[in-house]
Amino acid sequence: MRTSLEGSCPEPAQRKLCRSPFLSIKFFVCCHGVLQLCQLLVSAYLKSSISTIERRYGLSSQTSGLLASFNEVGNTLLIVFVSYLGSRLHRPRAIGAGALLVSLAGFLMALPHFLAGPYQYDRSSPSSFSNATDLCQPEVPGAWGNLSGAACAPQAARQNREVLLVMFLAQALLGLGGVPIQPFGISYIDDFASRRNSPLYLGILFSVTVLGPGVAFLLGSATLRLYVDLDKVPAGQVRLSSQDPRWVGAWWLGFLVAASLVALAALPYFFFPREMPREELCGKEEEEERKREEDVLSQLRMGAEHLQGLSLAQFLKRFPRVLLRTLRAPLFLLVVLAQVSLSAMVAGLATFMGKFLERQFSVTASLANVVIGAVNIPGAMVGIVLGGAILRRFRLSLRQCSALCVLGTFLCLLLAFPLLFLGCPTQEVAGVTDSRRPGARAVPAGCSLPCGCQEEAFNPICGSNQVEFLSPCSAGCKVAHIDLGTNLVLNYTNCSCISEGGLQGTARPGTCGTGCSHLFLPFVVLSCLAGILASTSHTPSFMLILRSIQPQDKSFAVGIQFMLLRVLAWMPAPVLYGSAIDSCCLLWQRRCARRAACRYYDNDLFRHRYLGLQFLFELGTFLCFLAAHLLLRRREEAPRDPRPGAGNAEKEKLAESSGGGTEPKV
Fold this sequence. Notes:
By secondary structure, this protein is an alpha+beta fold.
């Protein structure tokens, strides 16, 4: 449908309209890039603060993994109808409405902080010493008040349930709101941009899509350095440092920032028209540019014309038939399965890599987010750009695209395998790991029994013998040396459970750590290089998808592809990784007689199961790409029938399965 504005804009009034920013596709691209960046801040920020939220609300990794994947539920419920509704809605306004829903979801994610009271970290304080912390006092039996026990009040238990309910509701709304943003934005740009500029605009949007999670992790790094209750507790009363295992950063602050930015980015979309003049119609493009070959993404519109006349019932009736026909294409199925395996690996990387780095190398949540946001995610972006550049420079055929995917994933496997052995041992924790490690340092039996320590007390200290204790009381420490200026404990002395040459030893507050920080940098470098190599298959695999199906089914097939990625990878993978991580726990925090967050993991088991899953998914990706490559080579090397016309029939059959000629250039 052409509007009255189309043409070369000869009239002054029309020239004025053409100069309006809301009739410029360039301005739309700018607005959409900003919106996608802000949307990804909301969706990816949760992953940057997942370990902090676990600690704050006592969640297991399985529960937090389910929370991280729950936004895919709302997204999957509506994604099937995008192809049907896209041509019938006012797309800019639909994008704006979806963005406002995303903004609401971001504010809801921060709401639990304001519903709950101040953060009460696990500690015990003697009633007669306001400045001492969890000391051994045999002469004052029953003087302890365990603050963690307050969490078992009925009101607190109900509050925890409300927190989870609000977060899951927010994630569902986030998925629903995100449905129209990218598909409608891409189709709108492709409809009204010039054919020469359309690939450039879409490339900008895809770059922002990769860059957004990196910015989210950097935002998480900044906010998690601040104490969670900065709005409730004066800074001078905070007695924890960011290195303390009980530290909880201001996880909610990033959601407020991201949600506010999304709300502002949504406003311009309510002023864009339903249709605008094509970019070249204002004299900006040469006539010969219109005759150039359309970009591959523009071909997604090929099936849209015959969808215009379909009713919803006809659309739903047609969908299963097209789905079956698409899934019967072996090349399409193999490439999609490869992408599913790769996406499952990325889901585990994005959700729990920060927690893995924290536990494995004893780094803070802030530093872990910096590494992911500034190293791993930009590395993945470099890999995507590199794969696209190779594709464009050498104009690879389908078989060469599959070969590039095989090579990239194979090299990724070679670099990922050493990561299984590049890690830290489990730190020695008295009463937790000594039964599992025959070579552990001996702790005198019953040395803390006279102290009457609380079982749930958690105020870890590191003894001078490099053994970690759950609290100063459990180490039998009787004296705490306090800095009067900061009111922080400097060290503990007279610790009956810490023996040094027959004398009672000392301890310092905080964890002992894993003691292998020198392995942190090699691990980061190897994992970044593996990510770059795996990402080189992104663009070639997308081209294999588009060329492996019939042209009239492209719009359906891309929707099916993303639906399968969500259902088979992004939804179950975080839960699977969370369950694997939970199985490595050595000591669980208990709240109201239920299992809460994990305090200590078996680091070797954690590394082998977490990175083992990553390696298995990478292996699955490699095998699927290898099978696709062998399938294309077999088709290319199939013997030709010498009968007249038989070769043409074979070419037509191959063209039908690949969406083009026998071996089209991409």
